C-alpha cells in the first residue's frame, strides 16, 4: 500500500534536499491556487518505474524556471546563456535524483526498476497520468521567482499486488 | 604528489556538476579527464591510467558495475581508486559494488563536502 500523505512528504523533502544541496535554491510547497499555470514554453521531465509497483514521476516547469535551475546547478550567472541540452540534462538529473530519494525512502519502492529520465519541451505541455492510476500532484515555489509542478502516479492494479 | 582524476558519467551536465563540486571541495588534481560511458573510460585508462575514478552507475554502452570489473582486471590500474556516484542508495546495491572492487560510494544528491570526505583519503 502506498500512503498518499507519506508520499507527499517524501516528495517534498526529497525535492527540497536536492534543490538546497545541489542547486542552491530554496523550495517551498505552495497552494495550487497560488501556482502560476504554464502558458508559454515549458519542460516536462519524466521517469517511469516498474517492478512491485509501476508508475511515473514527472517534473513540469516553465522554460524560464528550467533555465534558472540549470544555470544554478552548473554554477553559471542567471544571465548567462544556457544551452538547451544542458537545460534538458539538468531537469533530467533533478527527476532522476527525486526518484532515487523516493525509492530509498519508501519500502514499497525499494525493488522497483527505474528508467532513464526523458525530457520534452514545447508549448502547453502537461503531465497526464495513465488511465486507472492514482497519485499526488504538488506545486512548489523555487527561489523567489520560479515554480514547478511535481506529480507522482502509480497504477492501482499494481498496488493491489503488494 | 600529483593526482589525476577521471569523471565517468553519461550526462555531460552531471560531469560539469561533479567537476564543480570537486573544485568547491578544495581538493586539487593535476589533470581531470571525462568519459561518457564505460567503453570511453576504458579507452582513456588504457592510454593513461589515473589515480581516482568518479563513476556513475547507470550509463549506456557499458555501465558503472561492468566498468569496475574491467578496471580491476587491468594491471596498470591496480592502484586506481574507484568512487561510485549514483542515486541508487540501497545497502545491498552498494555492498555489491564494493565487492566488485569499487573503493567507496557517493549518493546523489551530494555536497562538495561529501567529495572532500570521500576523496581525501586517496589524494
Ligand atoms: Mg547516468
Q: What kind of oligomer do you see?
A: heterodimer
Instruction: Identify the CATH homologous superfamily of chain A.
Output: CheC-like
CATH topology of chain B: Rossmann fold
Q: Strand fraction band of chain B?
A: 15-25%
Query: How many domains, in number, for the residues of chain A?
Result: 1
Q: In CATH's first tier, which class of chain B applies?
A: Alpha Beta
Roughly what percent helix of chain A?
Answer: 25-40%
Question: Any idea what the shape of chain A is?
Answer: globular
The CATH top-level class label of chain A: Alpha Beta
What would you call the shape of chain B? globular
Distance between the termini of chain A: 6 Å
Which protein chains are joined by the largest interface, and how many residues does each one contribute?
A-B, 23 and 18 residues
* Structural class computed from helices and strand pairing of chain A: alpha+beta
* Alpha-beta classification of chain B: alpha/beta
Mean pLDDT metric of chain A = 88
Termini separation of chain B (Å)? 8 Å
Secondary structure blueprint with pairings:
The complex is a heterodimer of chains A (162) and B (123).
Chain A: H1 4-23, E1 27-30, E2 41-50, E3 55-62, H2 63-74, H3 84-105, E4 113-114, E5 118-123, E6 133-142, E7 146-155, H4 156-160
Antiparallel strand pairs in A: 1-6, 2-3, 2-4, 2-5, 3-7, 6-7
Chain B: E1 4-8, H1 12-24, E2 31-35, H2 38-47, E3 52-56, H3 64-72, E4 81-86, H4 91-100, E5 104-107, H5 112-119
Parallel strand pairs in B: 1-2, 1-3, 3-4, 4-5
Helix pairs in contact in B: 1-5, 2-3
Residues 9-11, 56, 58-59 of chain B line the site of magnesium ion.
